[in-house]
């Protein structure tokens, strides 16, 4: 389907669609850094401020994402209804699970409604440049950066950290902002792990992998080499070992893995979850170190610590599960919700081979990242991921695909 047919001429939003998509994507990327700046400058923020900012971004996106097509409306209504049912069964008012359902639907459809690859290229490259420039300022002008961005104070203010978690080693940075042992990527850069606009280095490294995936996907993109450079610099500055590994997996998925049957892609996260569960029950270890093996063990222990109501998504108690995305997903959306949501993602028909390749790349990205983090659900990175997927699914196949 051509771009001209993607938006009806009578739609009053059509002239503003590309600009609105660009602005909400940049807003989702930088709003946490903006709130951190305000909090450091003396304008106090809270958890409610952060939630309000996310709601505003999602609401604006929703206004430009949905149209007369009934499919997205039905999917959104079904997922929200299910999310509200879980809230009622938990006796909770925490709407984080609803947000986790909303972000994929609205940002995917935002990209799908205006599948112009050139517009998507500009949004992705602009995001990469912002991340790199902010990262270089943080690294090269660190004393000045700390005067305007006190990350620890911001996370304490929004309720994501307690004052007791403040670490003298990291100072004003997030707890993982300093590598306690030697840096893995370019050790001469020192122990500082750059967070850029994400305020913590894990999301920065993940975002580098996302930029890499789009650059690999868009063979005819203007500025493709610059996007690859942005991806590499983001991963290096954040010393994101996992982000580098994921780039290798993404390459395999886009070159070879996309040929695998859809049922295997559907089974992938549940196979990983089963393997972690078995490992957690069988392992005799109770201590872990901050390396790949240690993170796998800790994720397995978190998963096997969940009670049955946690697996079903109806546990009223809120646990800290950020180090295991699979455990977090179960407690937020339940096993049934995870099955349906992943099934929609993987089994939904692909409009073109290029879109399916990118979907496989993001599937492997998500499945691997969920082992050690809940960050695939964060709007900071998820907004661009889902927009990219929507734009790729709706665009014409590239020549030679």
Number of helices: 17
Radius of gyration: 20 Å
Pattern of helices and strands: HHHHHHHHHHHHHHHHH
SSE-based structural type:
mainly alpha
Helix content class? 55-70%
Largest sheet, in brief, is: none
Silhouette: globular
How much strand?
under 5%
What is the typical, i.e. mean, pLDDT? 87
Poorly predicted regions: 1-5
Q: How many β strands by DSSP? A: 0
The first-to-last residue Cα distance is 16 Å
Using brief descriptors, characterize the structure shown:
401 residues, mainly alpha, 17 helices, 67% helix, globular, disordered N terminus
Describe the structure.
This protein is mainly alpha-helical and 401 residues long. It has helices spanning 3-6, 17-40, 47-65, 70-90, 96-113, 117-140, 142-148, 151-157, 201-217, 224-237, 241-255, 262-282, 292-304, 308-311, 325-347, 353-372, 379-394. Residues 1-5 have low confidence and may be disordered.
Which SSEs are present, and which pair or pack?
Blueprint: H1 3-6, H2 17-40, H3 47-65, H4 70-90, H5 96-113, H6 117-140, H7 142-148, H8 151-157, H9 201-217, H10 224-237, H11 241-255, H12 262-282, H13 292-304, H14 308-311, H15 325-347, H16 353-372, H17 379-394
Question: What's the short story on this structure?
Answer:
With 401 residues, the protein is mostly helical. Helices cover 67% and strands 0% of the residues. The model is unreliable at 1-5 (pLDDT under 50).
